[in-house]
Amino acid sequence: MPSAQSLAYHHLTVNDFHRMGEVGILHEDDRVELIDGVIIDMAPIGSLHASQVNHLTHRLVPAVSGRAIVAPQNPLHLGTSSEPQPDVMVLRYRADFYAAAHPEPSDALLLIEVADTSLSYDRDVKIPLYARHAIPEVWLIDVQNQRVEVFRQPHPNGYQAVLQPANTERLRPVLLPDISVLVADLWASAHE
Fold first, then answer.
1. 73 lies in some domain
2. Taking the model in full, what pTM does it have?
3. Any idea what the CATH number is for the domain that residue 97 is in?
4. How far apart (Å, rounded) are the C-alpha atoms in residues 47 and 101?
5. What confidence score (pLDDT) does residue 5 get?
6. How many CA atoms lie within 13 A of 81 on its CB side?
């Protein structure tokens, strides 16, 4: 039997991935995303994770109303071999609300990944993917520890600036500097 190192892998394209949905191999409610040509199964969304996404969406929608679109858990087209589903995207405003095509890196103003059970996957797989595709800013929300990491200055080798602000600090997205969010207000559980 050949060793794992000598095996060849068939990587899928985004077109292959969409075709699998069109012919019924993948279904609309399947929790999967395409990362570097590989279909990744995503864990079911727990109530803590869902609550955090709902809270962030609730806070961001009024802050960007009329000039950007907040898109929770929707696809982001990253080249020919990746289509992740960030937990929250803040996108450039488009009148068609992205009906013609999924957003691309140039559309992303801010991405937010919420991690309760997926911290290492988000940090080690998804955030480097976003850096390679020049996403300007990503917030990684660590729900369990109530910490946020802010990734800025994308580079093919990763983000050049990584911030870990305290709960008493305010975040201002690079491409939306008029928005100011107190880190302590990011946590859904703080508003129960």
1. yes
2. 0.91
3. 3.90.1570.10
4. 30
5. 64
6. 9
